[in-house]
Amino acid sequence: MTRADPALADRPARPGPPRRPQWLLRRVLWPLRNLWRSLTSMRTALVLLFLLALAAIPGALLPQRELNEQKTLKYIADHGTLGAWMDKLQLFDVFSSAWFTAIYVLLFVSLVGCLTPRLIEHAKSLRAKPVAAPRNLSRLPRHLTTTVDGDPEEIAERISTNLRGWRRTIVVGNDAATGKVVEVSAEKGYLREFGNLVFHFALLALLVSIALGKLYGYEGTRSLVADGEGLCNTSTAVYDSFRAGAMVDGTDLTHFCFKVDAFSATFLPNGQPDMYNATMSYTKGAATSAEDWHQTSVRVNDPLRVAGDRVYVLGNGFAPTFTVTFPNGEKRTQTALFIPDELQTMLSSGAVRFDTPAGLYPDEDVRRKNQIAIEGLFAPTADYQGTLLSSSSPVPNDPQVAIRIYKGDTGLDTGLPQNAYSLDQSLINQGRLQRQAQVNLAKGASTTLADGTVVSFDGYQRWVSVQVSHDPAQDWVLASAVAMLIGLLVSLLVRRRRIWVRLVPADPDRTGTDDGKRRTVVEIGGLARTDQAGWGEGFDEQAAGLVEPGGRSATRMSRWRTL
């Protein structure tokens, strides 16, 4: 019977380590741990990668607001309630939507969480010794037993020499039944896991590079007449539309200038475009002399690269030139961009507005009532369907226009933004713009209004829509993509293999030979970690070559190393 010590009973109990409340473990810590383990598993990363590819499909099939806002608004209007709901779901802003960003961030976190432990584990395996030989080598998928003349340690050194290029180790031990035992363990194919890690870390770097490119990049578009019109990349105000990353405020743009000198287009017999070619002049920084300008050609998928930016040609069309001769003899000439309505024939529509000459109408109200507006169609090759003008070819063989001429208030003085390619229909409905004539004009033809104003069609110019793209991470995106390809090839071509050799002195009574020579029983086992068959055909012949001298087994071992 054990008695309690009174002295110990009076001593106060020592406080134990602080314990977390059970509810905190069950309700908070354990669910968070399980959630983190699920998120950082490779299966979750693959699912998120698939979801990212799936989420990008609407961005390829539907018009995107950041690329063409007018086309996007028209699509929404044409589809009514469905279009409005699609807009609420951010299907027209896919790559900046909340749900696409969430998938993107979750994929990034998942890759970091699952790759970091694998990298640590791979680093440990590179420092570790090869795995010791299993007790029963005959159970391995590939196995060979043979008897060789010589001492076990001598044969082990020979096998180690033949296994150059493998990580190998020799262990000498004793066995109660057979006496001395020498084991050789060798491994090969660590580059497979290294290539796998390179592929996944390159994928991670690709995601980071794309994200940084979006944060610090920008894109600006501008339509330019191909008659020497150009721009300098000094301000966002020089562009028709400008999309900037979250870290770009537009005050530190790369400084360069370019202008479109000429544009040519070739078409197939069926009217489909064959090739576009824009001749551009460009200069880095401020041009102080003609020698600072350089000329180049910009084609499809062949942009102008200047100062780290790229200048693309996105679209093209025709810009007819009109001259209005007012009753006092003064002239106003404008070249207006017309937008193609039919890409196959380049039948285009547009509008142009003319203000009256200064001093012709001193009264402001009278001046606003005598402005001229033109709206109509341009056909590169005129083809009439009765009296309706159409186009039979995108090649400008017979350029003509069908226009409506209006007189009145064009809205130039309101200060409100207007569509540059069409007139404000509300001004026509209110009677502030009144139609004066509707005519078809060939190149060089003109028409005269009732008050003596003459409107003439002088010809046309080609215009191009250019995009200036700045992506500071584009080189990193390319390097990441190349690294992904290299890592994938390495992981597919390199095989992870292990081989074990056990050498024990032969018993003369069992072998039936007692000629005084020392013999060794060699047991070889092979295991491949990546496929069931493992070594392919000819394993026995290749394994037998391990115990032969290097001179006699060169052919066999060369085959061994290539597998």
Explained architecture:
It is a single chain. The protein has 4 domains: 103 residues, no CATH class; 128 residues, TATA-Binding Protein (2-Layer Sandwich); 119 residues, no CATH class; 137 residues, no CATH class. It is elongated and about 130 Å long. The protein has 15 helices and 23 strands. By secondary structure, it is an alpha+beta fold. Strands 4, 6, 10, 11, 12, 20 and 21 form a 7-stranded antiparallel beta sheet that branches. Strands 1-23-22-3-2 form a 5-stranded antiparallel beta sheet. Helices cover 32% and strands 33% of the residues. It comes from Gordonia oryzae. One of its GO terms (cellular component) is membrane. It holds the Pfam family ResB. Keywords: Cytochrome c-type biogenesis, Membrane, Transmembrane, Transmembrane helix.
Largest sheet: 7 strands, antiparallel
Q: How many alpha or pi helices?
A: 15
Low-pLDDT stretches are: 551-555, 557-563
The domain count comes to 4
Rg value: 40 Å
Record field, number of beta strands: 23
Q: How much strand content do the residues show?
A: 25-35%
Shape: elongated
What is the mean pLDDT? 83
**DSSP helix fraction:** 25-40%
Termini gap? 73 Å
Structural class by secondary-structure content: alpha+beta
